[in-house]
Design a protein that fits this description.
- The chain is an alpha/beta fold.
- The model has no long low-confidence stretch (mean pLDDT 94).
- The chain has ten helices and 13 strands.
- Helix 2 packs antiparallel against helix 9 and helix 4 packs across helix 5.
- The strands form three sheets. A seven-stranded mixed β-sheet has the order 4-3-2-5-6-13-12, with helices on both faces. Strands 1-11-8-7 form a four-stranded mixed β-sheet.
- It is 36% helix and 24% strand.
- Bound molecules: N,N,N-trimethyl-histidine.
- N,N,N-trimethyl-histidine binds next to helix 9 and strand 11.
């Protein structure tokens, strides 16, 4: 059953936070913008398409882990918890988990109101007895859980290696905030992408069909559409590079030639070859993973991984 107290929000014409982040990001040196702004309707659709790409292994690998280990989850997590999912776009992963651990409520949190509403409605239909309580919001900011799950022990579910988008200090802050939000008897099931062969990593973010390029370039189109921008989309190139020192894939938008453009009435310049750093996707070794969780106030308990060691699902306890 779907229980909403917030009307779904639809993309509005001018978002002051989007404007602020983009103006600030383009004024910095080097230029860098937060990845949350990829996900307008078109961006969310493109991300869904990315998850089906042959090169993009994380979604398929994690979904297979969730499908395969239901009995293990039931044993390790137990039943009767409220599941709080962070960043529940249009998840095809969640039903596997919900079937395995029979939760008392499901609280998906997502910044994209229309996507969240559609996926919550679909889930509520598939699980008619489960209270589904969507929360539209940015889980990087303080938020309140629905009062209906008060007193229920919680399982935080943070799939997709979304944590990888954060710098280590921000990742630790977020894990600590989740621990505070979820309570002392909480558990956390988190997906973390492993360090692996460089070419495999780069291919996952620079696919042959150019879907990831379109996803990256859509940010420019969104700026043009929503912030009165005149950036020449065709003069930007998608770049995906492995930064070995920081153990992360970086996505950039690189100016093919010197550029002048405007956003919201302000002038900007880029040199040829200069980039806008649009996303970092950190990858973790086995020990990195556990260290990060511990630093965030969570004690790793169990881990599930595919045979190739591409992607890990870690269960941790508060
Ligand atoms: C949604 C942050 C997990 O980093 O793999 C995919 C986003 N960007 N391809 C990732 C993304 C380009 C994705 N996360």
């Amino acid at each position: 059953m779907l229980l909403t107290d917030q009307a779904p929000t639809f993309a509005s014409a001018i978002d002051p936070e989007f404007r602020h982040d983009i103006m600030h990001g383009l004024s910095r040196s080097p230029k860098a913008t937060p990845p949350i702004w990829f996900y307008d309707r078109r961006g969310s659709e493109l991300f869904e398409a990315i998850t089906d790409l042959p090169e993009y292994y994380p979604t398929r690998t994690e979904t297979a882990l969730l499908a395969r280990h239901g009995a293990d989850f039931a044993a390790a997590i137990g039943t009767g918890r409220a599941v709080v999912e962070f960043g529940a776009g249009s998840s095809r992963k969640t039903p596997h988990l919900l079937r395995a651990i029979a939760p008392t409520a499901y609280v998906p949190i997502d910044i994209s109101g229309d996507f969240l509403h559609a996926s919550s409605a679909a889930l509520a239909q598939a699980f008619p007895d489960l209270p589904v309580l969507p929360v539209v919001g940015d889980f990087n900011r303080p938020l309140d859980l629905p009062s209906a799950i008060e007193g229920m022990p919680r399982l935080g579910f943070f799939p997709g290696s979304t944590i990888g988008n954060m710098e280590p200090d921000a990742a630790v802050d977020l894990l600590r905030a989740m621990r505070r939000l979820l309570g002392d008897d909480a558990k956390l099931l988190i997906g973390m992408d492993r360090i692996k062969d460089r070419d495999r990593l780069v291919a996952a973010y620079d696919d042959a069909q150019g879907v990831t390029a379109a996803f990256n370039l859509n940010l420019i189109e969104r700026i043009n559409r929503e912030l009165e921008g005149d950036l020449p989309v065709e003069e930007f190139a998608h770049r995906a590079i492995w930064n070995d020192e920081k153990a992360r894939i970086e996505m950039h938008l690189e100016a093919r030639r010197p550029l002048h453009f405007h956003v919201a009435g302000q002038c900007f310049h880029m040199d040829a070859g200069e980039t806008i750093h649009t996303e970092s996707s950190h990858k973790y070794g086995a020990r990195d993973e556990r260290l990060l969780l511990r630093a965030g106030g969570w004690e790793p308990a169990t881990e599930w991984m595919d045979d190739e060691g591409l992607f890990a699902l870690v269960l941790a306890e508060a």
